[in-house]
Write a structure and sequence with these properties.
alpha+beta; six-stranded mixed sheet; five-stranded mixed sheet; globular
């Protein structure tokens, strides 16, 4: 990747702003729908019973005793521990859009000084292998997952860093790394459901950025691999 051009050359500022606005609107609409969920309506008052009438008991036939299993309640999705207390997050740029990722979910930042080794027969969102001291790192084209409707092939030429993810063998290719910030859960407008962007944990209004749920993104990537395997 020689002499990469600024990514803003491909993605105008107003385009990025409109996309971020859409993210904020999605999160706000889901939160409003959750708050407007109908409350249970109380049933009619019970009718006072009349005088008891003695019933003639009928003979009871002996039935075999069969114990019915108790219904098992579905397990609730566990809330990641980092959402419950103040946490550090790394800000980085993907196609001109600022994203935040909890530092606890990240590993190392690798500079793209050399080429990424491509592999044939892989999906479009898989860029190839990046040699590191810890071994080859599978590189994800983050922009294809985060903003597919605004993706342009030229964005690949401006990638500068790969951020590895804790517990996974892949890393996210990004266009720039900004800074680490301290966030309180109250600063985040959390999503009430997955919606059409499962990777979006919420939005940080003060920083005007989207907060990425790395585990949700990992599930999408795994599902994408399985789909590609079926298509192959």
């Amino acid at each position: 990747m020689n002499n990469p051009l600024p990514v803003q050359h491909y993605v105008p500022e107003q385009t990025i702003q409109s996309y971020l606005d859409a993210l904020l609107q999605d999160a706000a609409m889901e939160l409003a729908l959750a708050e407007q969920a109908p409350q249970p309506v109380a049933g009619p008052e019970p009718i006072a019973p009349g005088p008891a009438i003695a019933a003639v008991p009928e003979p009871v036939k002996a039935q075999p005793l069969i114990e019915q299993p108790e219904p098992v309640a579905p397990a609730a999705a566990a809330t990641p521990a980092w959402r419950e207390a103040p946490f550090e997050a790394l800000l980085f740029d993907v196609g001109g859009l600022t994203l935040a990722v909890p530092l606890i979910s990240l590993g190392s930042i690798h500079s793209l000084d050399g080429p990424i080794t491509p592999l044939f027969g892989q999906p479009d969102w898989f860029l190839g292998l990046l040699p590191t001291q810890a071994g080859n790192l599978k590189v994800l084209d983050t922009a294809r997952w985060i903003m597919p409707e605004r993706y342009a092939p030229e964005l690949r030429d401006a990638l500068r860093f790969v951020i590895s993810v804790q517990g996974h063998e892949w890393g996210m290719a990004v266009h720039g790394v900004s800074q680490s910030i301290h966030l309180d859960p109250a600063q985040v407008k959390w999503r009430s459901g997955q919606g059409k962007r499962p990777w979006l944990a919420g939005t940080v209004i003060d920083q005007m950025c989207a907060l990425v749920d790395v585990e949700a993104l990992a599930e999408l990537i795994t599902a994408g691999k399985q789909a590609d395997a079926r298509l192959g």
